[in-house]
Write a structure and sequence with these properties.
The structure holds two protein chains of two kinds. Chain A is of the alpha/beta class. Chain A folds into two domains: about 50-215, NAD(P)-binding Rossmann-like Domain (Rossmann fold), CATH 3.40.50; about 245-275, no CATH class. Chain A contains ten helices and eight strands. In chain A, the strands form two sheets. A six-stranded parallel sheet of chain A has the order 3-2-1-4-5-6, sandwiched between helices. In chain A, strands 7-8 form a two-stranded parallel sheet. Chain A is globular, with a radius of gyration of 19 Å. By secondary structure, chain B is mainly α. Chain B has one domain. Chain B has six helices and no strands. Chain B starts with 17 loop residues before the first helix and ends with a helix. Classes of the chains: A alpha/beta, B mainly alpha. Chains A and B meet through helix 2, helix 6, helix 9 and helix 10 of A and helix 1, helix 3, helix 4, helix 5 and helix 6 of B. The complex binds nicotinamide-adenine-dinucleotide.
Chain lengths: ~280, ~190
């Protein structure tokens, strides 16, 4: 329910663009539609696994579904943050033949190979990431590319500074542009990365001339749960394996800095209210 | 690559067999059938069976709730935790009342209102005797605790080129504000 815009619905802490609801990190939280939104956490599920089910895990799983992956498809995931890692792991469930993860942070790529069984590319180490990906994919490109980076993408200083820093565009579409170039003709791009409502400098001509299908959405989280819970129970996905830091509430400011500046190999921090 | 069919699926090489993938990757192919995927079919149009309503009851409007003029009506439920206040509130109301989401002015005004809001809140915190503390509250002290320098030096990070901009973007308003306050004070003394 979002009077502020005709996009999405209400989201906590997404301010006036999604219904004007404050964030959920508070002493008290109002839960509209409590007869619809929440679900009972199964007995067997650990707290950290349950926590991952609220956002990043279903988003990655959903991102792989939007790619319409068919058996044997080559799937490239831009971004090895929580969303990208889960998307890469989920791509296998849908029958991917190869999964390639792209990032510039080595710790994350290491997890992409260990946790998500993916091949990895560090774009900080190759001259032209699109050419590199083409070389790795028989010069065809990938059948499916998932953008799990979004508005703060790195890799082009001008794009990054004009968007993330100066807000002159709705988001830095570096990963999205790489996706458009790295996917094969007629391929599919699934956009999980979030962008702002203003225009961004996207290479739309290439997307059109390659006949791409671009699918995007905020994740309908609850819809993913029943099936996702089965995957966790069956050991197909082990969501809490990507948690790197547990931050006591008292250290929250420094914890946020660790998280946003990606220090100390931080991939997924968890706030622990009782650990103080 | 097969020279005759450069863009055909057959040109693909290096795809392991299903058996190999299944033995190597836990759960491989569990959702091979699209019907097993939660997002299939794409759209479902139903009120969840746990809901006691068909259309939710209309929430009371404590103030003329700002809303996108593209909407036919105010949604039955909406947030009330960020009521428009002060100058930032006036700018927000204008952005909603006057411009659709299709207009850059709509978003630019909202962006400006956010910036104004930050200043208003900082001033309010100061008046309440609990001024913001740019040192402890930005978490910058985490640089020491979480190995800021070595974290950035390791590997092939490309984002380090713009990291020096962050202190400028965070610090500049404080420095400019301090300078303006000092100028005002000096002028008042004369
Ligand atoms: N659609 C949804 O429902 C939904 C839900 C949650 C998060 N998100 C969005 O998904 C995105 C990813 O979330 P996250 O929590 O994993 O964030 P994150 O910041 O942890 O991960 C992003 C990763 O992308 C890497 N990166 C930066 N530029 C890149 C580039 N050009 N190419 C490849 N990788 C690059 C970063 O190094 C980082 O590891 C964000 O935009 C977030 O807002 C969407």
């Amino acid at each position: 329910m979002n009077p502020n815009a005709t996009a999405v619905g209400g989201i906590y802490g997404y301010s006036h663009t999604t219904g004007g609801y404050d964030g959920g990190q508070a002493e008290l939280v109002r839960v509209p539609f409590a007869d619809v939104g929440p679900t009972i956490i199964p007995e067997w599920m650990s707290d950290e696994d349950a926590l991952m089910c609220t956002d990043a895990l279903p988003t990655g799983y959903f991102g792989a579904q939007l790619g319409d992956i068919a058996e044997g498809d080559v799937v490239t995931v831009f971004g090895a943050g929580p969303v990208g890692l889960y998307a890469a792991a989920s791509a296998w469930l849908m029958g991917a033949g190869r999964v390639i993860v792209v990032d510039h942070l080595d710790d994350r790529l290491e997890l992409a190979s260990r946790f998500a069984h993916a091949e990895t590319v560090n774009f900080g180490q190759v001259d032209d990431v699109v050419v590199h990906l083409k070389q790795q994919t028989d010069h065809l490109g990938s059948d499916v590319v998932i953008d799990a980076v979004g508005a703060e993408a790195d890799g082009n200083l001008l794009q990054h500074v004009t968007s993330a820093k100066l807000k002159l565009q709705g988001g830095s579409p570096i990963a999205l542009n790489w996706a458009i170039d790295a996917v094969r003709k007629g391929g599919t791009i699934s956009v999980m990365g979030a962008y702002g409502p203003m225009f961004s400098a996207v290479k739309f001509g290439d997307a059109m001339n390659k006949g791409l299908t671009i699918r995007a959405n905020q994740c309908p989280v609850k819809r993913q749960w029943p099936r996702l819970f089965e995957h966790i129970r069956n050991g197909h996905l082990k969501p809490s394996e990507i948690v790197t830091h547990r931050i006591p509430l008292d250290d929250i400011a420094e914890g946020y800095h660790l998280f946003s500046a990606k220090l100390d190999g931080c991939i997924k921090p968890v706030v622990v209210p009782t650990a103080a | 690559m097969s020279a005759t069919t450069p863009y055909a699926r057959e040109a693909r090489t290096g795809i392991p067999s299903a058996d190999e993938l299944r033995s190597r990757i836990p759960g491989w192919g569990a959702d091979l059938d699209p019907a097993d995927r939660p997002s299939y079919p794409r759209e479902i149009d139903a009120v969840p069976d746990t809901a006691h309503w068909h259309l939710p009851e209309q929430q009371e409007e404590a103030w003329p709730r700002e809303r996108s003029i593209e909407h036919a009506r105010l949604t039955p439920v909406f947030g009330t935790s960020c009521p428009p206040r002060g100058l930032s509130g006036a700018v927000r109301k204008l952005a909603y009342a006057r411009y659709s989401e299709a207009r850059a002015a709509h978003w630019l005004l909202l962006l400006a209102a956010d910036r104004i809001d930050v200043k208003e809140q900082a001033a309010l915190a100061l008046l309440r005797g609990r001024p913001d503390d740019p040192v402890t509250q930005t978490g910058i002290l985490g640089e020491r605790r979480y190995h800021g320098l070595s974290s950035r030096r390791r590997g092939h990070r490309v984002d380090t080129v713009h990291h020096p901009l962050d202190p400028v973007i965070v610090g500049l308003p404080w420095i400019a504000g301090g300078w303006a306050a000092w100028r005002l004070l000096r002028r008042a003394r004369r």
